[in-house]
Amino acid sequence: MTVSMYSVSIPVFIQHLNGLNTVLDKASGWATARKVNEADLLNMRLAPDMFNLARQVRAATDHAANAAGRLSGKELLKFANDETTIAQLKDRVAKTIDYLKSIKPKEIDGTESKDISITFPSGQTRQFTGQSLLLGNSLPNFYFHATTAYDILRWKGLAIGKRDFMGRPRLKS
Predict the structure, then answer these.
(1) Which pTM was predicted?
(2) 87 and 119 Cβ atoms separated by less than 8 Å
(3) Which residues contact 83 (CB under 8 A, 6 or more apart)?
(4) Low-confidence ranges of the chain (pLDDT < 50)
(5) Which domains does the chain have, with CATH numbers?
């Protein structure tokens, strides 16, 4: 059985970004109830050398949107990266989901061998095939950052669980 590049990317990203939105909703209510300053919450991190919560959410959205854009050949989604509130992060997640929904299966399926070159902020350039980008870079990074955002909030005492993280899968109708 062949699995399509679209089916292992776009619906997966959307499902988990919806889960991240749920987690952010719960974080907002939790912070309000405990009188935790939202800026302090968004600056929390698991370790001094790790990204803070806001940057984890940004990275998760970036990996999802950039993979979709590079595979489909669409213009990459751009953000100012200046979100300072949960509402702004939720807006970023919503815009990413809208962008992902704009991509059709035919734009991603068949991109397994597509040559993709990425120049990173460090100046280093790496070459990928579509499949190696998605399976070896984008999905692992997406999960890492989404999980770390969840973990920061869980570590601080937010009552969230795996169902919150997972989001609702899109079931076949």
Answers:
(1) 0.94
(2) no
(3) 42, 54, 57, 58, 89, 91, 92
(4) 173
(5) 10-166 (1.20.120.450)
